[in-house]
Amino acid sequence: MNKGGKFIFGKSLVRSDGTLRIPPQAVDEYRAASEGRVYLFTGSRSTGGFCVTRHGLLAPSKLGGILRGLPALDAYVQPGGAFTPYKGRSYGWLSIRPDGCIRLEEKALAFLNLKPGMALLCIRSSDIAFTLGAKGPLLEKALAYPGPIETF
Q1: Burial letters for 80-96: b for 16+ Cβ neighbours within 10 Å, e otherwise?
Q2: What distance lies between CA 115 and its chain's CA centroid?
Q3: Which of 33-37, 121-125, 144-148 is the least confident region?
Q4: Please, what's the b/e burial string for 127-137 (b: 16 or more CB within 10 A of its CB; e: otherwise)?
Q5: Which positions ≥6 away from 121 have C-beta within 8 Å?
Q6: Which of 11, 54, 88, 94 has its CA 20 to 30 A from that of 103?
Q7: What's the CA gap between 4 and 63, in Å, rounded?
Q8: Do 131 and 39 meet the contact criterion of CB atoms below 8 Å apart?
């Protein structure tokens, strides 16, 4: 949206059944659907929403200790869509379709303060994860942006 700023992949619309489609460029760049499951963790206080990564990116990274600290998450024993608190954030996992669609159950939507009809801004966060932000200055800037931002 501006030179040197955060890269925006597009917007993901939360549908009435809790599904949302991650923008294809984000799915491709992070190979998000390559393992059939993704990890979700709560976003920052200012952006809200959640961050998305996968085992192959998280485990070998400097944040891999999260999986060692949450072995039920690492082994996908924790129920899909359930969140477990750990060191200031909460972590869960979901299945992801090859087209980048995920489905958040009502309990997960409520936990993340999301509602059907919301548009989440898909933001490149790091080489480990991207964010689906629900609020804050980046979302406000995107809403005021005069050019098109594709919605998925």
Answers
A1: ebbbeeeeeebbbbbeb
A2: 15
A3: 144-148
A4: ebbbbbbbbbe
A5: 8, 11, 49, 131, 132, 133, 134, 138, 139, 142, 149
A6: 88
A7: 25
A8: no
Read off the tokens for 4.
């040197």
C-alpha R_g of the chain: 15
> The tokens 């990564």 sit on which residue?
53
Work out the pLDDT band at 95, boundaries 50, 70, 90.
very high
Q: Residue 68 carries which DSSP code?
A: H
Residue with tokens 């809790």: 18
Q: Calculate mean pLDDT across residues 52-73.
A: 96
Phi, psi of 127 (to 5 degrees): -80, -5
Compute the average pLDDT of residues 61-87. Answer: 96
Residue written as token pair 């955060």: 6
Burial (CB count <10 Å: 0-12, 13-18, 19+), residue 23: buried
Instruction: Write out the two tokens for 99.
Output: 């087209």
